[in-house]
Amino acid sequence: MFSIRCRYVKVLLLTVTLQSFVSVHSNEVANKHEGNLKRAFVSFQDVVTNLVNLTRSHEHGSPCARDVNILWESADAGEVWALQMFDAASKVQSGILKGNIRDLGMYDQCVAVGVERNPANVRGSHCMVTLSVPPELFHDANGMIILQKLSTFGQNFGSPLTFTSAVCLPSSCNDDDVLKLINRSITATPSISMLGIKVDEVTCSSGKNDDFSLGEVLLMMFIVTIVAFLFFCTVCEYLQRGRPNGEASTLSTLAEFSLYTNSRYLLSTKPAPDAVPVIFGIRVLSLCWVVLVHRAFVTFFGPIANANDVLALQSTPLALFCYMVTFMVDLAFLVGGFLTTRQFLKSIRKGEKINLLSVYFHRYIRLMPSLAIVTLITVFFLRRIGSGAIWNQGMKLIIDPCEENWWTNLLFVQTSVNAAYMCLPHTWYLAAEMKHFIISRILILASFRWPKYARSILSVSFLLSVLAPCVLLVINKNSNGVFKLSPETSKSELQNNVLNLYMSSVFRSSAYLVGVFLGYIDLNVKNSLSKLQIVIGWALAGLTMLLCTLATYYVYADTNEYDLVFEVLYTALARPACAIAMAWFIYACTQGYGGPVGRFLSSPIFLPLSRLSYCIHLVHIVMQMVLVLSSRVPFVFSKFALLHQFWGDLVVSTALGFVLSLFFETPMMVLERVVKKSFSPKVTSTGDSLNGRQKLNETTNGKVIKVH
Questions:
Q1: Of 188-202, 293-307, 659-673, which has the strongest mean pLDDT?
Q2: 275-297, pLDDT tens digit by residue?
Q3: Cβ-contact 320, 483 below 8 angstroms
Q4: Given a cut of 50, is residue 703 above it in pLDDT?
């Protein structure tokens, strides 16, 4: 057993953050402010003395002051629980100049405290304290200022530089109590307050959850009902096996919802007869790319011990891998346009009656169930599945937009209504893709209705898809370097680039239209190309993608200054050209010119993940945020650690995506098929589960599975 003198323990509670700030000054700055800093060190105990006096003067005024005094007295007496609370507070962390400016303390140790002390029960509450420090006191704070723009939790964008540290206080002290108490103590200590240091924000958490709300109970009942129904249908399938295959009955209808049969379909490597196998590999590899890039960006939402090392990579070729993700998003739009157009044109060719409202409803019912359940779980359950020092702060930024704008997700208008306060921002793709789907069906029908104007309609549409983004870029003064950061980059500028360029459906329209053209060519043009034509096609496609990569590297280079002419040319040429190059790749593989690459991407091993990729996309970034916000200690960033986390993300997201698809997406697809059969006497039930799933697979070719 060892003892700690009370005055040192108390100093630890409030002054460790200030010590962290002072201890990292360069010699030049330390000499400049030597007098102030020395006075600040001498006055640390004065801060604590002032705090004790403030709490004692309000001893009978509030439960917070009463419990803090109990904490002081217990620490004086050397009681373990009080020392445990002091020990859970932040210490002077190392590597602050490397960007280690957010220390989390020991959350679990703090909230585990619970003692009975007359006249109150004292429970530990972990508080994250955001300290504002003038940047001129640092030799070079640019890296940390950039970090604040990346990290939204515990940071105050109104001040140039902030540090975040943890203190452990009684749970009777709310956020305002702690904020006022510490700021009054600092104000009462001139040697500290004269440096311009103050506390801007306090967020406390006692690790205690509220009772279940009505919405949570209803959602839980709904999910339990769905699960019970599907298990019942699985039993029905078992009972159905002894009946003749051609016999239609209520039992056979219920058997189609069987978990066993649907799981076999999801995990099957047998494609539908008219599927495009190369799309399977493209979806999976592009999904992996997106998950990896999202992991890199999501990491910044949590504490990073060496954040400045990460920021130093933003102009290197390694970071180019992340920046090129915008072309992966364009590829997703291209694939979506290709598959939906191909399926739509096949329906027209078969002579089926086309009802646009029915087509749109079919599309909506394919995408909505999984999105709806993820949105509902986010609103009602997400806050309960984790905890941590920054958990409440993060959950507030995730859940609050969903509580207000959940309906925009269900109508796929999240990019048009309250876009800056979007629920589940990664679902922006669904809204943009839905707009393209609606407009493209009209263009295709118009082309069939007036065939002699078909080329003009499609040509004008493509021209507008190239010119419109250029006009918007000039009006909004956007930059294609969406994620490029510098000390001069404001938060509003960063948000403006993301919302008006990266998430804009207008900027993605050229890629989608290229997919529409590809769908038409794939069904109607069956030219046999010579070896020379194939070589030229691959060479031009490779050269185009190389030029787009180099142009993107130039956009993000530190030496590159904003040039409106270059930005317009990049917008008008790079995206359409890269989309055409990727379209050639898909076309060459579908026509047998893909070689070993085409055979690899067409491998049936990609098919199960391809089917799950939509649900994986919906859940992966939510899961990543949960892991980051549950952090207990700062993360040390490295390329190996990033890859390690990526594989974990992919495995867990695949498991969650499988459950989401099995219990919500696939049953809705089966329900739609059952309803159609009941109104279409020409379509008979075969009773063959495998054939039923093959039909289901055919219909899913018209749905965009890969999203970003």
A1: 659-673
A2: 899 999 999 999 999 999 999 88
A3: no
A4: no
* Percent of the chain residues topping a pLDDT of 70: 81
Query: In whole angstroms, what is the distance from residue 160 CA to residue 179 CA?
Result: 19
Tokens read off for 281: 């590999």
CB 339 within 8 A of CB 697: no
**297-327 residue pLDDT tens:** 888 888 888 877 777 777 777 788 889 999 9
Secondary structure of residue 89 in the 3-state scheme:
coil
Check residues 605 and 158 and name the one with the higher pLDDT.
605
Assigned token pair, 60: 């009978």
pLDDT in tens, 28-71: 433 444 444 444 444 444 555 556 555 555 545 688 888 888 88
Give the residue among 95, 15, 45 at the shortest CA–CA distance from 636.
95
What is the DSSP code (8-state) at residue 155? -
Cα dihedral 231→237→238→240 (10° resolution): 150
Best CA proximity match to 355, nearest among 265, 479, 445: 445
Rounded CA-CA distance 420/410 in Å is: 17
- What letter represents residue 696's amino acid? L
9-47 burial string, b = 16+ CB within 10 Å, else e? bbbbbbbbbbbbbbebbeeebbeebeeebebbbebbebb
Distances (CA, A) of 143 to 41, 98, 309, 416, 603: 26, 9, 9, 34, 45
Beta bridge partners of 125: 169
Whole-angstrom Cα distance, residue 626 to residue 479?
31
Integer Cα distance of 617 and 636 in angstroms: 26
Burial of 695 (C-beta count, 10 Å sphere; 0-12/13-18/19+): middle
Nearest in space to 300 (alpha carbons), one of 491, 147, 489: 147
State the DSSP H helix or E strand holding residue 125, giving kind and residue range, or none if neither. Answer: strand 120-132
Q: Each residue of 342-359: pLDDT tens digit?
A: 888 888 887 778 888 888
Q: Cα dihedral angle (597, 603, 606, 611), rounded to 10 degrees? A: 110
**In this structure, are residues 634 and 304 in contact, taking their beta carbons and an 8 Å threshold?**
yes
In whole angstroms, what is the distance from residue 48 CA to residue 501 CA? 50
Instruction: Give the distance between the most distant pair of CA atoms in the chain.
Output: 94
Structure tokens at 297: 């960006």
pTM, 2 dp: 0.85
Specify the residue for token string 């250029």.
470
The contacts of residue 604 (CB under 8 Å, 6+ apart) are 269, 270, 271, 277, 280
According to DSSP H, which parts of 204-323 are helical? 214-240, 250-255, 259-267, 277-298, 307-311, 317-323
Whether 683 shows a pLDDT value over 70: the answer reads no
State the residue for tokens 């804009």. 504
CA 627 – CA 385 distance, rounded (Å)? 10
* Residue 79 three-state SS: coil
Distance between CA atoms of residues 267 and 607, nearest Å: 8
Q: List the structure tokens of 11.
A: 């100093």
- In 88-174, where does DSSP find H-type helix? 107-111, 142-150
pLDDT level of residue 663 (50, 70, 90 thresholds):
very high
* Dist. CA 285–CA 123, nearest whole Å: 49
CA–CA–CA angle 685, 686, 690 (5° rounding): 120
Rounded-to-integer distance, Cα 661 and Cα 671, Å: 14
> Angle at Cα 599 formed by Cα 597 and Cα 602, nearest 5°?
110
Structure tokens at 658: 């499988």
